[in-house]
Amino acid sequence: MTDLQRLNQAINFLEAHLTDDIDYDKVAKITLTSKYHFSRMFTFLSGMTLTEYLRNRRLSLAAQDLIHEKVTILTIATRYGYDSADSFSRAFKQFHSFLPSKIGKHLHEIKSFSKITFQLTIKGGSTMNYRLVTQKPKFMLAGFQKEVPLIAKGINYDVQSMAIEFMTPEAIVDLKSISNIEPSGIISASTNFTDDGNLEHWIGVATTKTQQKYDQLIINNDSWVVFEAVGKFPQALQEVWTSIFSEWFPDSSYELDDGPILVWYGGQDMSVENYKTEIWLPVRLRD
Asked: CB within 8 A of 230, min separation 6: which ones?
């Protein structure tokens, strides 16, 4: 079975459980990845987070249920995972632009959000710069961590504000002084995806030295594939993300391994036209 087929099987599982509490670990097992990596893969292939997709699908179906069934708003709200009619009504209005109690007057304004299906698109002539790093010793990311939302496109302002808050000139100098293993210099890591669309974001440096004054993320992965992205930040980086999951992995003998995803940054001035970043992905050979 191909990656694409497994991904569409995962979508079918989600569709069959839109009125249930979804077990994301089961979804991830279908794609042979962790739930974090499945969510990341989904986001960069679809252009939206998994949370956004599920919310939109549920609100789309909820409108149809309200039209065709003689039930209360609370019944529909509970069916699609909302704790109260008020919270459902707020979400419904944000999506459809009117309250569910007014649906009879707005039948022509109902928004439809269809099930997503991933298909193979043949692209020729593109080149991706990458390298394999194997037998890498255990190391840690020393720095700062915070829970932030996963953003598919554009600037993640929560990550930006985190960097402004923690990465002072003094902190950058001090952190770089303890960076003693690749990727050298300032890096970030994404891990511990949550069911509500957030993740644990880290900023710091890679080191083999235990640190007391910084948070520490232990990283045990020994095999990595490293992709280079050069261009306007963050667009160039996000385009490479999409290409990795849509082009490189389907044709590769590797698959994602459990572990954090790292991004190396080529300097503090991210406004330059040819800003360089590297994406470090933990991988393992396919069975």
From this structure: 236, 274, 275, 276, 277
| Peptide bond between residue 234 and the one before it cis (omega within 30 degrees of 0) | yes
153 and 213 together in one domain: yes
The boundaries of the domain holding residue 31 are 3-109
Overall size of the chain counted in residues: 287
* Burial environment of residue 212 by CB neighbours within 10 A (0 to 12, 13 to 18, 19 or more): exposed
Q: How far is 164 from 42, CA to CA, in rounded Å? A: 29
* Distance (Å, whole) CA 190 – CA 261: 5
Same domain? For 99 and 145 the reply is no
Distance from C-alpha of 171 to C-alpha of 176, rounded to nearest angstrom: 8
Omega before residue 183 within 30° of 0, cis: yes
Could you give the number of structural domains in the chain? 2
**Last residue in a domain, options 52, 78, 109:** 109
Q: Are 27 and 33 in contact (CB under 8 A)?
A: no
- Chain centre distance of CA 45: 10
DSSP per residue over 134-189, as a string? -SPPPEEEEEEEEEEE--SSS--HHHHHHHHHH--HHHHHHHHHH--SSSPSEEEE
Please indicate, yes or no, if residue 121 is contained in any of the structural domains. Answer: no
Q: Give the model confidence (pLDDT) of 232-282 as tens digits.
A: 998 899 889 888 888 888 778 888 888 899 999 998 888 999 999 999 999
108 or 55, greater pLDDT: 55
- Residue 87: inside a domain, yes or no? yes
CA dist 274 and 189 (Å) reads 22
Whether residue 115 is contained in a domain is answered as no
**Number of Cα atoms under 13 Å in the Cβ half of residue 53:** 21
